[in-house]
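User: Sequence in, structure out. Go.
Assistant: Echoing your sequence, followed by the structure tokens.
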Amino acid sequence: PPPAPPRVTAMSARFRWLPLTVLCVAAISAAPAAPIVSGVGTAQTLAQLEAGRRALAAGNAAEALGHFDKALTGDPKSVGAALGRAESLSRLQRWTEVEATLQRAQAAEPRNAEIRTAIGRVAFARGQHERALQEFQAALDYDPDFVPAMLDLGETALLVGRADYAERAFRSAATIEPTRAGAHFGLGRALLRRGQSAEAIAAFERAAELEPQRAQPWLAIANVHASAKKWDEAAAALARARKADSQDRSVALALGDLDVAAGRTADAVKEYGAAAAKFSDWPEPLIRKGRIHQQLGERAAAESAYRDAIKRGESQSAVALNNLAWMLAEDKRNLDEAAALARRATELNPNEPSFYGTLARVYDARGDAKAATVATQKAEQLRKRR
């Protein structure tokens, strides 16, 4: 059957304060007045550094790479230029050159915490999480007060299920930089993972106090209350989240998710509809709205929502493609279209077993037993891997 609407508690995966980028972008973006270099450098070197930073900020990695290369020509020991070069290469997916650049930088500055943190971030980006933990810890061995390494250590520790390790890292960061909201936010997530809900809420509230324009702390608090089925408290937190950032799409979805979790399906449909109207290029609210209609047996409304979602962005609408195909197969109508929809869903998410189950259902409705068997076997293979 099609996947059920997500629980509010599933929102926690989106609560990272900032994405864990490959390198220390904050360090690369330091003002020219305080360049991150081993030596003073020349005016021309600093100008190339600044031009590279601007190009990175504009999303032009190739142009940035050229500027950082020129900066390194002027000052081969410039840590900022080396990090900028590695960041540019990472955005271009040139991983071998990223690692070579960082190895050269480390050879020139063997006990530099920023370089070691950057190496850890490359390991993280490549899925080498245990190695990333080791690199971040090594960076802290070089500089026990280097907060970026603490934050990255905390994020990685949370990912691998070491909440106690994450708590120590985030707590240390919050102690060294008590006004860094992200440290308190990370601490709250670690405490929540350890079952300390009241302490987690206090950490999230501190993060919200430090950066009142952020919706994430209030979303996290709403998640805590929703997990305890304290629907009114969760709704109040979401209202604070919306006030903090009315353009945050996670808030728009969370309002509907909360109604789903509380059993208020009619209210959920309204919230998802409002989100779809507000963010007219975004298919996700329509997908969630369609799932509710489908589960309630309101098939025409479900089909309309799914088709509208697909129009907004097929590549983001694998669930809509799958669920619409399922409905058409159930109704035994438009089966050629249903097959095309189901196949497209599997192309977009080839590791989702339920999508192959839908494809098998469509083939069965078309009377193609052989193709249905193949799709069913694929679904079973994927389920076993999980």
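User: And one key feature?
Assistant: The mean pLDDT is 89.
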